[in-house]
Amino acid sequence: MSDCIERNIEISAPVARVWRALVNFREFGAWFGVSLEGEFAPGETARGRITHPGFENIEWKVVVRAIEPESLFSFTWHPYAVDPGVDYSAETPTLVEFRLEAIASGTRLVVTESGFDQVPPSRRDEAYSRHEGGWTQQMKNIERYLA
Fold this sequence. Notes:
Blueprint: E1 4-11, H1 15-23, H2 25-32, E2 34-36, E3 45-50, E4 59-68, E5 72-77, E6 94-103, E7 106-114, H3 121-146
Helix pairs in contact: 1-2
């Protein structure tokens, strides 16, 4: 297992369009599978509910770290924090970064999640495994959303 998961995809859409799908909370929620309460803002906590079947009772919560227009959107969160009876707040969160690059065919989107080495050993392998598959699916989701 590694400390980091990285996925990338080439999307046939301009950087500005992919950017909007990342940072507009309604658009992000539509492809990511979360119903968000409001806008993303650096330094602020964004909250909502997961809309994926079977996980609707789970709160989705991230702290936005950076919004660099049409370049970088990042947040921290607690990976695979799906047990409503567990308080994950004492754990060190992982960092998720979405980076955009203009290419001839549209946009290259790279998502990286790092910091799994700080996840408690009792949860680390499952969190990494779930997110490894999850990011593969999320890249398909945003591509489909923008098609």
